[in-house]
Amino acid sequence: MSTPQTPTQVQIEIDEATSQGIYINMAIVSHTETEFVVDFVFLQPQAPKAKVRSRIVTSPAHAKRLLSALQENIQRYESRCGAITIPGDNTPSQRYEGHYL
What we know:
This protein has a four-stranded antiparallel beta sheet with strand order 3-2-1-4. It has two helices and four strands; from the N terminus they run H-E-E-E-H-E. Mean pLDDT is 88; it is low at 93-97. The chain has helices at 16-19, 60-81, and strands spanning 26-31, 36-43, 50-58, 99-100. The chain is of the alpha+beta class. Helices cover 26% and strands 25% of the residues. It has a domain at 23-84. The chain is extended, with a radius of gyration of 18 Å.
């Protein structure tokens, strides 16, 4: 009979620059068999180019956990603040194999 493992408590640190955050208004999601890649992008209005501000590369299992955490937090938000509405799709045409958000 195995004894249950006690969860390890992890301390998470964040430096000053990272704690300020980076504004994005678009994300591109793509994947391979072993990784998910999320590019966080800022697209300035009327600009012909967008800039990737951050790229996250993670495993499929962590991507699924992130999806679950986002769904749970959106449900909490909407129960307190009301439904989030998404205006008509005005994203740029898809130029990459990824999915735009």
